[in-house]
Automatic annotation (TrEMBL), chain A:
Belongs to the binding-protein-dependent transport system permease family. The chain crosses the membrane at residues 35-56, 106-133, 139-162, 174-192, 235-256, 277-303. The keyword Transport applies. It is found in: Cell membrane. GO terms for biological process: transmembrane transport. It comes from Aminobacter aminovorans (Chelatobacter heintzii). Its main location: membrane. It comes from the Bacteria. SUPFAM superfamilies: MetI-like. Residues 104-304 form the ABC transmembrane type-1 domain. Pfam families: BPD_transp_1, OppC_N. InterPro entries: BP-dependent_transpt_permease, MetI-like, MetI-like_sf, OppC_N. Keywords: Cell membrane, Membrane, Transmembrane, Transmembrane helix, Transport. This is ABC transporter permease.
TrEMBL record, chain B:
This is ABC transporter ATP-binding protein. It is a peripheral membrane protein. The keyword Transport applies. Belongs to the ABC transporter superfamily.
Length: 316, 326
């Protein structure tokens, strides 16, 4: 599994692009249709979200752009649909397409930051537990066990409720995203910690680490230069799959009303709002955000699965 | 143990070395299953001297504690008892020991380029100052072990086992040691490659005046390399003496057994476990002489009394009740 990555680097010198194109990863990628389709869809979704302010017909946060007379318009292909509201509008005259693009942006950003934060927490804990062993290992991993025995969503609810209560009122709205990132990260770091710990124990006992120990290389440097790079591959796979999970957790929290506020709706918030109109006949207010969320999570998971199969020599 | 008298000054003298591993089950299991703590005596009261500029080999079956001795000597493990003394080098500082490992695949970091692997000791020990000097030294070392300068840019997986072992040797030399501990450096290699690597090691020994503590389970390799041989059995040295004396007249029954099983040319990959019964578990060592369950000459005394180490006329030390200085 390590050889793929090193081979990519080993070809050295001839430009990055060429190196990528010569690598095993690229080779496998061009042979997996599902991975390619998923990557294309993900690229479209992400770039649409990133460039939302340029693409979206409307800024859904700007109250001045909302037109109450255009409220609850159906999608454009329905008889009463109106240009430019391609996917219809909600009860406040907000363009659904714009709301979804902006919402995707928020969902992706929160998902990304929470994965990065939980990676930081999990990898640090795993490296320390695996390398130092003993009491450090016991403390960290038992704490991890406890965390795992509580359902992710419950931890996230707990953390986000507690942190919100601690924030002053005027910060709650602004801090909502940060609270979510923090809550999701705290509920999902254990998996990384376990993966990295297991790999660290394997690497720690390898002779190249002992060669470094003979030279009295400080533990910090052994961890950073020798062990960490050799634990990255499995972590990368877990992180990709967890990115999808993080987006879902965020959506769930927002759906439950303890996530992003209606003023800055994420996909989950949009679904919660739309849910109220499901039976009044305005199905588009909830259906399109749901489709977008599913699409996003499914393509991320397909890519994650592909990466896992690729990097796991036992499955090849 | 009796202090031995050697004609040469010794680079390392080890006296009564002991290493015990705590192999107890985790605390909770012990409490639940009411098991006591369990200790494994991997190295038991070992004494030897390595002649300066010479080579002492440790031989013995798998699990007899050879690697543990190597790790104690290099400081990777802390001894539970006994003492080790390195002779001071020319600059008055004790000789620094470096190590060559058994597994050529696990001993090089797969993500580092060879030049960085070799440069690590130079950087860590601050043996050169500028990047240019380090690079120059790396190239010099690569050439010393028979590789080319351009090999430095490659990764370990691009090399064969023998070449990797050369890289390991280059890394060990980079630390400018006077003392090298080689833990079965060739046992993972093909026979033809083994000879090349062993010859390289001998050449380097002459060139740099290195002292080797060499570990092997292969008597023919050991004969090629060493001045003195120490035969280990279950954490103890049962016989130690000059190579030729030991081969010409093995005194201890275990040494005799080992010599009978020297691999022959036709069948080089013989079992590394010698014939004649199982090796007892070091967790439950036999009473008296540790070798008595397998010894053809064992008497009643052997199962009750640990034989003392005796120094014979030729300087050979043996631990066996039946061996006498005739
Ligand atoms: N870190 C450790 N913890 C517990 N037991 C150990 C440890 N290291 C070695 N042992 C035990 O000590 C004994 C001696 O092991 P050692 O590795 O020194 O043997 P060896 O002679 O080098 O064998 P081999 O030829 O297989 O390398 C073995 O029974 C082994 O199980
Ligand atoms: S002491 Fe007894 S059992 Fe041990 S080697 Fe000598 S004869 Fe064999
Ligand atoms: Mg060993």
């Amino acid at each position: 599994m390590t050889t793929d990555v090193t081979k990519t680097g080993a070809a050295a010198r001839p430009g990055l692009l060429k190196r990528i194109r010569n690598s095993d990863v690229w080779w496998s990628f061009t042979r997996s249709k599902s991975a390619m389709i998923a990557a294309v869809i993900l690229a479209v979704l992400v770039s649409a979200a990133v460039f939302a302010p340029l693409i979206a017909p409307q800024n859904p946060y700007d109250a001045a752009q909302l037109d109450m007379w255009k409220a609850e318009l159906p999608p454009i292909w329905e008889p009463t649909g109106e240009w430019p509201y391609l996917l219809g509008t909600d009860t406040q005259g907000r363009d659904m397409l714009s709301a979804i693009l902006y919402g995707t942006r928020i969902s992706i950003v929160i998902g990304l930051f929470s994965v990065v934060l939980s990676l930081l927490i999990g990898m640090t804990a795993g490296l320390c537990a695996g390398f130092f062993g003993g009491v450090v290992d016991n403390l960290l991993m038992r704490f991890g066990d406890i965390t795992l025995s509580i359902p992710t969503i419950l931890i996230a609810i707990l953390v986000s409720t507690v942190v919100r209560q601690m924030l002053p009122d005027d910060l709650r709205e602004i801090g909502a995203a940060a609270v979510l990132v923090f809550a999701i990260a705290l509920s999902s770091w254990v998996q990384y910690a376990r993966t990295v710990r297991a790999q660290t124990i394997v690497e720690r006992n390898k002779e190249y680490v002992q060669a470094a120990r003979l030279l009295k290389v400080p533990a910090r440097r052994i961890l950073a230069h020798h062990i960490l790079p050799n634990t990255l591959t499995p972590v990368l796979v877990a992180a990709t799959l967890n990115f999808g999970m993080a987006i879902l957790t965020e959506a769930t929290l927002s759906f439950l009303g303890i996530g992003m506020p209606p003023g800055q709706p994420s996909l989950g918030t949009l679904i919660r709002i739309g849910n109220q109109f499901l039976f009044s006949g305005s199905w588009w207010i909830v259906l399109f955000p749901v489709i977008q969320l599913c699409l996003l999570v499914v393509v991320v998971n397909i890519l994650g699965d592909w990466l896992r199969d690729l990097l796991n020599p036992k499955l090849r | 143990m009796t202090a031995m008298t050697s004609h040469k000054t010794s680079a390392l003298s080890v006296n009564g070395l002991v290493k015990t591993f705590d192999v107890s089950a985790p605390w909770l299991n012990r409490v639940v299953e009411r098991k006591p703590r369990q200790y494994l005596q991997a190295v038991n009261d070992i004494s030897f001297e390595v002649p300066l500029g010479g080579c002492l080999s440790l031989v013995g079956e798998s699990g007899c504690g050879k690697s543990t001795v190597a790790r104690l000597v290099t400081g990777l493990y802390r001894a539970n008892g006994g003492e080790m003394r390195f002779a001071p080098g020319e600059d008055g500082k004790p000789l620094a020991a470096q190590m060559i490992f058994q597994d050529p695949y696990a001993s090089l970091n797969p993500r580092w380029r060879v030049k960085n692997i070799i440069a690590e000791p130079i950087r860590e020990l601050k043996l050169r100052n500028t990047a240019a000097e380090i690079e120059e030294r790396v190239v010099e070392l690569l050439k010393t072990v028979g590789l080319s300068a351009s090999d430095g840019d490659k990764f370990p997986h691009e090399f064969s086992g023998g070449q990797r072992q050369r890289i390991s040797i280059a890394r060990a030399l980079a630390g400018e040691p006077r003392f090298l501990v080689c833990d079965e450096p060739t046992s993972a290699l093909d026979v033809s490659v083994q000879a090349q690597v062993l010859n390289l090691m001998r050449k380097l020994q002459d060139e740099f005046g290195l002292t080797y503590l060499f570990i092997s389970h292969d008597m023919s390799v050991v004969r090629h390399m060493s001045d003195r041989i120490a035969v280990m059995y279950l954490g103890r040295i049962v016989e130690e003496g000059e190579t030729e004396a030991l081969f010409a007249k093995p005194r201890h029954p275990y040494t005799q057994l080992l010599l009978e099983t020297i691999p022959n040319v036709k069948d080089p990959h013989r079992d590394r476990v010698v014939a004649g019964g199982e090796v007892p578990s070091p967790l439950k060592p036999p009473s008296g002489c540790p070798f008595h369950p397998r010894c053809a000459m064992a008497t009643a005394r052997c199962s009750s009394e640990l034989p003392a180490v005796r120094t014979l006329a030729g300087g050979t030390r043996v631990a066996c009740h039946l061996v006498t200085d005739e």
